[in-house]
Amino acid sequence: MLAELRAEAARQAGVELPGEETLARIRPSTVLAILGGGFAIHLLLPQVGEVRQTFDALHSVSWGWLVAGLVFSGATYVAAALAQLGAVDRPLAFGRTTAVQLASSFSNRLTPGNLGGMGVNVRYLERSGLTRGDAVAAVGLNSVAGGIVHVVALAGTAVLFGRTGVGKVKLPAGWPVLAATVAVLVVVGVALWTPLGHRRVVTPTLRALGHLAEVVRQPVKALQLFGGSAATTGAYILCLAASLEAFGAHASLAKVAIVYLGGSALGAVSPTPGGLGVIEAAFIAGLTAVGIASGPAVAGVLGFRLLTFWLPILPGWLAFQRLRRRQVL
């Protein structure tokens, strides 16, 4: 009867029946895939590097740096909320928008390519009074701004390394395993995204580009949008740097930045939720290639993923459920 009521209401109002955004559902197969994949990755990586060095790094952890990394991880949700505020004309509550970003992170653990988080944000903006088209355009605009910031930052760090160099390159033991893991998952991701890309990514992105010029003409909104996106990327880089320091892997911020930007770009096209598998392998290969010992590098990357991928799952789920009960989503 609810479906008939919606159809009749739309007919009486003379409008097209709006579609409902399907939010991520928890399926046992998805949970098992995430847990199984995560367990396999966390067993594999120490074997790729020097096992003894990895365990030595784990035993000599600096908890202060890990706490700093946790703070930077939390800052990513605040920065993401700021960027989302810059993508819409309607005023939104900053605290509630931040909670939505935390809930979005939980949804992204169930779907590849951040599709779950995009669906949560679209639903939130619709419940806040935006039309479906404006909500999709706002979420797409936020993604476009993040992509622009990512590309500019990657180009900047690449130019910096072109001038200074990376020093002696030392690949980790078993590096072909890392290369094969990244290559296989990226190829699978591209293959899966090809039939879906035009409908789920390309079309909203093109629509968002039309709104970009309007935002640029509003200095405050442009500052929120691009400043929030830059702060999100910067907070992730600082979190990775802090995690590496926690396990005795000392590296310049520029080296950490280029490894993060390159690895996360590969993870974005992975078919696994949150780039699981690709990001770990890419980060380990990149860090060891710029001169960091593989044992501390493995420990640092596992610590980073603990702070940014695994620990936020429970608070993200709690935020998701709370926002659903309050009909914010």
Structure description:
The protein has 329 residues and is mainly alpha-helical. The protein has one domain (34-325). Helix content is 78%, strand content 0%. It is built from 13 helices and no strands. The chain has helices spanning 2-13, 28-48, 51-59, 63-86, 94-108, 115-127, 132-164, 175-216, 219-246, 253-268, 278-289, 294-310, 313-325. It is globular.
Question: Which descriptors would you attach to this protein?
Answer:
13 helices, 329 residues
Put the structure in a nutshell.
This protein has one domain (34-325). The chain contains 13 helices and no strands.
Mean pLDDT: 78
Strands, count: 0
Helix content: over 70%
Helix-strand category: mainly alpha
β-sheet strand percentage:
under 5%
For the biggest sheet, the summary is: none
Question: End-to-end distance, in Å?
Answer: 22 Å
Radius of gyration: 21 Å
Tally the structural domains.
Answer: 1
Q: How many DSSP helices? A: 13
List SSEs in N-to-C order: HHHHHHHHHHHHH
Low-confidence runs = 193-198
Shape: globular
